[in-house]
Design a protein that fits this description.
This protein has 14 helices and twelve strands. It folds into four domains: about 100 residues, no CATH class; about 90 residues, no CATH class; about 70 residues, Helix Hairpins (Orthogonal Bundle); about 150 residues, Heat Shock Protein 90 (2-Layer Sandwich), CATH 3.30.565. The longest helix has about 55 residues. The relative contact order is 0.05. Helix 2 packs antiparallel against helix 4. With about 475 residues, it is an alpha+beta fold. It catalyses: ATP + protein L-histidine = ADP + protein N-phospho-L-histidine.
């Protein structure tokens, strides 16, 4: 028993003692009212009935905590009691002292202040409880999935617990029964040696930063020597590989749910959008052209938002097949599809690398569009309208990185402040009134789907330079 476990009964006793202390205070109040003040006994007892019940509840909870210290830590409960009690006492003392200085005590204000503290405490506890509830629901779903996997896998699997440092079988799946000849009833509560498994080595399986399970290696043959460092490393590497595969499955499931949501969003928004656009076309000849133009522009913006949401949802899936692409041809082809105004493209050097030829276009098109829309002459001017007014066009440079494992897209615009370089890739981040702030989020999704990374640095010409690294060069 460690020191923390040893103080659990003491903490429970302190909780019960607090209840007794409060009960003694209320008892003294009854004595003072009846004996000294001459109040009626039944009225005084009625006044203190609720405080007496609360005190009795605290005593009962303290005694109960002393019996369940293996499941609930009394020290944690006591810390919360002390924290909440200190908060209420400090708040009430603060208000009381100010009112005393004013020469009058206002019970309503004291009650309101304590109510505010109680409401805030209820909010904190409510949020915490709801998070715990959701966590329990997630664990229940995960438990059901693991139980189904445990029962249906074709590999023999055992569920083990450790007693005194030795693994003991708790349950076995049907595949174990058919392989070793033991059913679940015979296998339970036996050590590995009793099952003829004389060699055991296990390592933890951590998925998404949390303990997911254990990877176990067993054998019916004993071994005289302990496991070597190389064998232990192999087990750990295998566990990491399994963890990555499980994380990939989880990520794929999240992306699938996101795609389903995007499809539903697209369907539900596009139907009324098409109706509205049709009505606008019908009214153009007999209504105010300016108002219709504004309405049509708003509908076009909704259409752009729908397309961008679908793009983000679909570009997050990992790239499975790649082929060699040439940087110069790819950049020039993408530059032709973007509304470039007076901007120009310079390919500083050529480079061949492996990529998905369709999805990689989204990287260059969105980076080109970002450079053009924000390529004004003044760093204080960050909108497309200012860009069109301030200069003829931005100059964009494309080329390979010096170490040959990626490429860059740079411009001679105002650049991106260092404080904003982490947030510009977030969906919805925009500095203009017309943009929806999702282009660079699409870029990051495509880059990460290829297994690459992207960062923003200052270009030699003073503009923004996006460097994509991790690309595999092609012969």
């Amino acid at each position: 028993m460690d020191r923390t476990d040893a103080v659990q009964p003491l903490a429970a006793a302190v909780v019960a003692s607090l209840g007794l202390l409060l009960a003694s205070i209320f008892t003294f109040d009854v004595y003072q009212d009846v004996v000294i003040e001459g109040d009626r006994l039944w009225f005084t007892l009625l006044e203190n009935s609720v405080p007496y019940l609360l005190s009795a509840a605290i005593v009962a909870i303290g005694l109960w905590l002393g019996t369940v210290s293996d499941r609930i830590r009394s020290t944690t409960v006591l810390r919360w009691i002390v924290a909440s009690l200190a908060g209420v006492l400090i708040l009430s003392s603060w208000v009381y002292l100010f009112q005393q200085q004013q020469g009058r005590i206002k019970p309503r204000i004291i009650a309101a202040q304590l109510s505010a503290a109680a409401i805030l405490g209820g909010i904190v506890v409510g949020i915490y409880s709801d998070r715990q509830r959701r966590r329990r629901e997630e664990l229940a779903v995960e438990k059901s999935r693991l139980e189904a996997l445990f029962e249906n896998t074709s590999e023999p699997v055992t569920q083990v617990a450790f007693e005194g440092g030795d693994p003991v079988v708790v349950d076995v799946n049907p595949a174990f029964e058919s392989t070793f000849g033991y059913d679940a009833r015979e296998a339970r509560e036996r050590s590995f040696e009793e099952h003829g498994l004389h060699c055991y080595h296990g390592t933890t399986l951590v998925v998404d930063g949390e303990l997911y399970g254990t990877v176990c290696f067993v054998s019916t043959d004993p071994r005289p020597d302990p496991f070597t460092p190389a064998e232990t490393t192999f087990a750990e590497l295998l566990a990491r590989m399994l963890a990555r595969e499980i994380e990939r499955d989880h990520a794929a499931a999240r992306i699938e749910r996101l795609e389903e949501f995007a499809d539903v969003l697209s369907h539900d928004l596009r139907n009324p959008l098409n109706v509205a656009q049709g009505r606008i076309d019908m009214e153009r000849e007999r209504a105010d052209e300016e108002n219709l133009r504004i309405a049509a522009r708003s509908l076009d913006r909704i259409e752009a938002i729908i397309s961008s949401v679908l793009a983000v949802a679909r570009e997050g899936r990992d790239v499975e097949e790649t082929e060699p692409v040439r940087l110069s041809a790819l950049a020039e082809r993408c530059f032709e599809t973007v509304e470039t105004s007076e901007s120009t493209l310079h390919v500083d050097d050529d480079f061949r690398f492996h990529a998905d030829p369709d999805r990689i276009r989204g990287v260059f098109e969105n980076l080109f569009r970002n450079s053009i829309e924000h390529g004004s002459a003044s760093p204080c001017s960050r909108t497309r309208e200012d860009a069109d007014e301030q200069r003829d066009g931005v100059i964009i440079h494309v080329g390979p990185l010096h170490d040959g494992d990626g490429f860059y897209v740079a411009d001679d615009g105002p650049g991106i402040p260092e404080s904003e370089r982490e947030t510009v890739f977030e969906a919805g981040h925009t500095t203009g009134s017309e943009g929806i702030g999702i282009g660079l989020a699409i870029v990051e999704s495509i880059v990460e789907a290829h297994g690459w990374s992207i960062e923003i640095v200052d270009d030699a010409d003073g503009g923004a330079r996006f460097e994509v690294s991790g690309a595999i060069p092609a012969e």
